[in-house]
Write a structure and sequence with these properties.
By secondary structure, this protein is of the alpha+beta class. The protein has two domains: 46-136, 2-Layer Sandwich (GMP Synthetase, Chain A, domain 3), CATH 3.30.300; 138-186, no CATH class. The protein has a three-stranded antiparallel beta sheet with strand order 1-3-2. The protein is built from eight helices and three strands. The chain has helices at residues 2-14, 22-31, 36-43, 60-72, 107-127, 139-143, 146-150, 153-164, and strands at 47-56, 77-87, 91-100.
C-alpha cells in the first residue's frame, strides 16, 4: 500500500495536484450510497437505472464523457453521472447512473425511455472502447449487444453453447444467441 501511495503522490505532484481536506472524502464515504433522492423520483414515475462497463485507463475519460453525452441527447433524459467503482492496474469499472422523465406515465412511454437511454449509453460505451459489462453480466437487456461486443468470437460462443446445451436449458436468450424457447424481452 505504501508503494502505491508514493506513486500516487508523485503522479499528483507532477501534475500540479493539491492535497484537499480529508473531510471531503469523509463526507463522500458517508453519503455515497444514499439513493433517497432517486427513490423520490422513482415514485414520481421517472426512469432510473445504472449501467457499468470495464475500460482501459487510456479510455476512461473518453468513455465517461461519450456515454454521459449520449444519454443526455435522449429525449426526456434529466441526469447522467458516473463514478469509478473498481480500479485495477490496467483499467477500471465505470458505473453510470441515469434518470429520465418519460413523456407520459404509461408503461409504453416508460419502456421507450428506458430502452432509448440504454441503447444510447451502451452504443456509446462500445464505440468508445469499453467492454460490454464489468460485473453485472449480460442478461436479457444486454444480449442484443453481444455480437457487436465480441465480433467473430460470438459465433464461437454460440457453437460452444449449442454443443454443451443442445436443449437450450441454460440461460436461454441471454447471450445474444437465438433461443429455441422463443424471444425474451425486458
Amino acid at each position: 500500500v505504501n508503494a502505491t501511495l508514493e506513486i500516487v503522490a508523485e503522479a499528483a505532484q507532477s501534475n500540479d495536484g493539491e492535497t484537499a481536506e480529508t473531510q471531503l472524502v469523509d463526507n463522500w464515504l458517508s453519503h455515497r450510497n444514499d439513493t433517497s433522492g432517486l427513490q423520490i423520483l422513482s415514485k414520481k414515475g421517472f426512469v432510473i437505472d445504472t449501467m457499468e462497463v470495464a475500460v482501459a485507463w487510456s479510455r476512461v475519460n473518453q468513455v465517461a464523457e461519450s456515454v454521459k453525452s449520449s444519454i443526455m441527447q435522449v429525449t426526456g433524459a434529466r441526469s447522467a453521472s458516473c463514478h469509478i467503482s473498481h480500479s485495477y492496474i490496467d483499467g477500471a469499472c465505470i458505473y453510470f447512473t441515469f434518470v429520465a422523465e418519460p413523456s407520459t406515465k404509461d408503461l409504453q412511454s416508460v419502456e421507450l425511455a428506458y430502452s432509448q437511454i440504454w441503447d444510447a449509453a451502451q452504443n456509446a460505451a462500445l464505440q468508445s472502447g469499453a467492454n460490454l459489462t464489468h460485473h453485472h453480466g449480460v442478461g436479457i437487456n444486454r444480449a442484443k449487444y453481444m455480437k457487436r461486443a465480441l465480433g467473430s468470437a460470438h459465433d464461437v460462443l454460440a457453437s460452444i453453447k449449442s454443443a454443451l446445451d443442445p436443449k437450450d436449458i441454460l440461460n436461454p436468450g441471454k447471450f445474444g444467441i437465438a433461443s429455441k424457447r422463443g424471444e425474451y424481452k425486458i
